[in-house]
Each structure stands twice: as structure tokens, then as C-alpha cells.
Design a protein that fits this description.
- By secondary structure, this protein is an alpha+beta fold.
- The chain has 3 domains: 202 residues, Hypothetical Protein Pfu-838710-001 (Beta Barrel); 136 residues; 131 residues, CHAD domain (Alpha solenoid), CATH 1.40.20.
- The protein is built from 20 helices and 9 strands.
- The protein has an 8-stranded antiparallel β-barrel, surrounded by 4 helices.
- Helix 11 packs across helix 12 and helix 12 crosses helix 14.
């Protein structure tokens, strides 16, 4: 099993790394340098890629070695993969040698004669590698690698400039400690994509796409601690999968990627809240999560005003588009400014540090440092009983807040909406522990209630943003005042739909 932490740097950062005192302090010798050429092989229909695997032949000087990688995971830049290697006599793979090494289910694929006869080179990676063998005070052996070069497919090229910290022996969390020490002096970003990922992206280019939460599978045999780790990793995956879309400049995709990153962040904060009696998040990490939330929120608010709220006003009132075009243009301009700020935040060293620190906390079970032996024992209990308790408390909080929903002010409605959202996230986290026939109707009722309350919240936020536009642009005062008045009336008359959604929800039984 290969375990490595991948970090991306610029040319200046690469030079700083070469002279960094930590390498001088812990390296057993000068860096070993070599030029490497990797050729990746696959079938014309990318069968290996579709099986979540990779096959390459590497040339170093006059030696050749083939590598087959498969499965594994990526969390916070930490790549964990199965890896098999064997020497070969030339630039082509030797599948017969691999068959004796590779485990199922990939062994069956390698034994297919159809597969073997259709292999062809797909792309090439050429890098100059500098490698340091590091021995840390804790006894860990880490290979620190700096790769600089490019990935090539035909006339297409993309640069490679990355640090890989591979754990040869020791604790994986110490990779994060070492990376965080380097990050104090070297601007870097987390590398969630392997060289193979980037090479295949050249073969079939696609723009970044917004990524929703993937299904979460918990089992009744999991402990409370294991369940939290699985939930946190799932939320972090959604956050990080949308990084590229937030940083890039395509306006339409940027909006949805930012929205999904924000959803992932809200789910993560909800999970931390659900487990807070057993798992204490350090204050510095809480502050950093609050910071990221504040960076993403304004852009989403302006996106909703320009793309949802104002168009719904125009449709409902049959207002001519030109009458609202000035407002939409101003709102879109504001959204653009906020997106630039969000993009800068996600591309910053502060964001990188947040992801590294939080991933380290989750991987290492950092909460145990402040727990009593009794509380640590609670973490080893089965999760199912804990899940029932959590869902019951979430439902009770929502029912209590919803008692005064009729005629409630915006702040009270917002509190009900947040309670509904947290209850839904909690149900989705633990849904694999219950029957889907009970979970889905419950989640559907929660979602319907949340959507209706969400629209009213959007209208309340729109009032604040429109007032801001009025103060900044006097020519928008008339149409902005008119729109605010209409939205205020919609908010006042929104009770009927909410009551219907609420009545349907209170009849639902807790799915556990």
C-alpha cells in the first residue's frame, strides 16, 4: 500500500524547498537526482481508467519498471493506493509478470487476451526528480520528492511541479506535520489529482464540474468514532472536489461549484455539531471553518438574488425584463466581486493550511487528546444507538422551534429552517443504518419544508442586498424599492404554504 501526501508548488517554492533547513536537518544524505519518463498504457476505450486503475512503464537511465496502481482513496491530499511493481526488459508492459503480483479483481482484467491485445500508450510524463530520505525524531522514514517537468499527450502539455511526501514507515499523520512545517515557508496547494488523473484529463478534456455529496455508507458494526471519521471524510471530499470550479473563472460553473462547496462545508459543520458531546473541535480549527464560511457566503447570496429571486419577481408580476435589468446587472456585478474574493480565499495558503490541519485532526483522532478515559470508551460504542439519539434530538429541536412558525418573524423562521436543514443532514448521514422506505419519505418532507423556508429566507436576504444597492446607486432606488415591497408582501403571505409543509412533516415518524 502506497501512502503519500501530494502538494503543488510554483518554481520559487521549488527552489526554497531545495534549501529548506528541515531537509538539511533530517536528510541522511544529499538528494538523489534522476530523470524519469513514464508512459501510461490503456485500451482505446480507457478500460483501465474506468476500473479506477493505472498502468505505466517508467524509464530511468537504461532501466525499465512497470507499475500497476488501483483503488485507494484521496483525503486532504493524502493518497492511499494499492501498488505493484516489477522490472521489464523494455518500454512495453509485461502483463504475465503483473498477473503473478496483482490481487483480484484486477487480476481477472489482466488475464483477458482481448485486453492485452488492445493496449496502447496514452500519454507520457517526463520529470526531473530530486529525492531526500528523511528520518524524523519520532522514528518515521519519509521520502521527500520534488518532481519538475511536464505531462504530454501529442501536442498538448501541462507542467508538473509537485512535492510528494511518501511514508516509508511510521505514522501517516506525521506527513501532515512535516507538510505544515514546510508550508510556513513555501506557498503550496494540496494536490488531490495524481499525474495519471492529469494525463487522462488531457486525453478527454472537461471543464471543472460541480460535485454533490456522494452516498455515505455506514454499517451497524461501526463505532461512533469510525462513523464520525467516515462522515467527515465524505464532507471534506465534497468541499475539495469543488475547489477547481471555485478557483476557475467560468461564471456559470463557478456559481454551482461554490454552492456545492458551501453545502459540503455546512454538512461538515453540522456533523461536528452532532458529535460535539464526544468530539471537541479545537478553537483554532473552528475559527478557520468560520473564516471559510464567511468567504463563500456573500457570493452565494448575490448569485441567488441575480439568478433566482429577481427572475421569479419578473415572472410573477409579468414585469418587462428591462425594468429589472439594471438590478440584475448590479447584482451580477456584486456577485462577480464576491466570487473573486472566494476564489482568492480557496487558492490561498490559509485554505491549504486549514485542509491540512483538519485532515490531520480527523485522520489522527485528535479529539482523543482532550477526552477522559470514560469518554474515550464511549467512542468505541456502536453507532446505531448513538444515531437514534442524535436524530431524536434533532427532530425534537425542530418540533419545538416550529410550534411558533405561524406568523413568525424572519429570524424565527430562519431558526426553523436551520433546524430542518440540520435534521435532514443528520438523517442523510445515518440513512444507511435504517430502511430506505422509512428514510426517503422523511427526508422528502424535510426537504419540502426546508425549500419553502429557504425561499422566504432568500427574500429576506434579498431585501438587505437591494437596500445596499439603493444606497450605492441612486438610479436603482425606484425599482429596488418596488421589488423590496413586493418581496415583503410575499414574505407576509407565505404562511399558508409553510403550514401545509409543516403539517405534512409533523405526521412523519422518525426513521430509526
Amino acid at each position: 500500500m502506497e501512502i503519500e501526501l501530494k502538494l503543488l508548488v510554483n518554481s520559487q517554492g521549488a527552489e526554497v524547498l531545495r534549501l529548506h533547513p528541515l531537509l538539511t536537518k533530517y536528510a541522511t544524505s544529499k538528494p538523489h537526482q534522476q530523470r524519469m519518463t513514464d508512459t501510461y498504457f490503456d485500451t482505446p476505450d480507457l478500460h483501465i481508467r474506468r476500473c479506477d486503475a493505472g498502468l505505466r512503464v517508467r524509464r530511468v537511465a537504461n532501466s525499465w519498471i512497470q507499475t500497476f496502481k488501483s483503488g485507494g482513496s484521496v483525503t486532504g491530499g493524502l493518497h492511499t493506493r494499492h501498488e505493484w511493481e516489477s522490472p521489464v526488459t523494455g518500454p512495453l508492459p509485461d502483463l504475465a509478470a503483473l498477473r503473478d503480483l496483482v490481487d483480484s479483481p484486477w487480476n481477472k482484467m489482466l488475464r483477458s487476451s482481448t485486453f492485452e491485445n488492445h493496449l496502447l500508450p496514452i500519454f507520457t510524463v517526463r520529470v526531473t526528480r530530486s529525492a531526500w530520505q528523511l528520518y524524523l525524531p519520532q522514528g518515521d522514514h519519509i521520502e521527500c520528492v520534488l518532481d519538475q517537468g511536464f505531462i504530454q499527450l501529442g501536442n498538448k502539455k501541462v507542467p508538473v511541479r509537485e512535492i510528494e511526501l511518501e511514508l516509508k514507515s511510521g505514522e501517516p499523520t506525521h506527513l501532515f506535520d512535516f507538510a505544515l512545517a514546510l508550508q510556513q515557508d513555501i506557498p503550496m496547494q494540496i494536490g488531490n489529482l495524481s499525474k495519471a488523473d492529469r494525463g487522462y484529463a488531457l486525453f478527454a478534456p472537461q471543464p471543472p464540474v460541480a460535485v454533490k455529496a456522494t452516498p455515505l455508507k455506514l454499517t451497524k458494526h461501526m463505532t461512533i468514532e469510525q462513523a464520525f471519521q467516515a462522515i467527515a471524510v465524505n464532507c471534506m471530499a465534497q468541499i475539495q472536489s469543488n475547489e477547481a470550479g471555485v478557483v476557475q473563472q467560468d461564471a456559470a460553473e463557478n456559481q454551482e461549484s461554490l454552492h456545492q462547496m458551501r453545502v459540503g462545508l455546512r454538512r461538515l459543520r453540522c456533523a461536528i455539531g452532532l458529535f460535539k458531546d464526544l468530539l471537541h473541535l479545537p478553537e483554532d480549527l473552528q475559527e478557520e471553518l468560520n473564516w471559510l464560511t464567511a468567504q463563500l457566503g456573500p457570493a452565494r447570496d448575490w448569485d441567488v438574488l441575480a439568478g433566482v429571486t429577481l427572475p421569479s419577481v419578473a415572472e410573477a408580476l409579468l414585469v418587462d425584463e428591462p425594468l429589472l435589468s439594471g438590478l440584475k446587472l448590479a447584482a451580477r456585478r456584486k456577485a462577480g466581486e464576491m466570487h473573486e474574493a472566494a476564489s482568492a480565499a480557496v487558492g490561498s495558503s490559509r485554505y491549504t493550511r486549514l485542509i491540512l490541519c483538519f485532515t490531520r485532526w480527523v485522520q489522527s483522532g485528535g479529539w482523543r487528546d482532550t477526552l477522559s478515559p470514560q469518554d474515550q470508551n464511549h467512542l468505541t460504542e456502536r453507532v446505531r444507538k448513538f444515531a437514534r439519539k442524535v436524530l431524536w434530538h434533532a427532530q425534537r429541536r425542530l418540533l419545538q422551534r416550529g410550534k411558533k412558525l405561524h406568523g413568525a418573524d424572519p429570524i424565527s423562521r430562519h431558526r426553523v429552517r436551520i433546524a430542518a436543514k440540520k435534521s435532514r443532514y443528520a438523517t442523510e448521514f445515518f440513512e444507511s443504518l435504517s430502511s430506505s422506505k422509512r428514510v426517503w419519505p422523511y427526508v422528502a418532507a424535510l426537504s419540502a419544508l426546508q425549500d419553502e423556508l429557504g425561499w422566504l429566507n432568500d427574500a429576506a436576504v434579498a431585501d438587505r442586498l437591494l437596500k445596499e444597492l439603493q444606497n450605492e446607486q441612486s438610479d436603482l432606488e425606484g425599482i429596488a424599492s418596488f421589488t423590496r415591497g413586493y418581496l415583503a408582501a410575499r414574505i407576509k403571505n407565505g404562511d399558508l404554504k409553510i403550514r401545509k409543509r409543516w403539517k405534512k412533516f409533523v405526521l412523519m415518524k422518525l426513521p430509526c
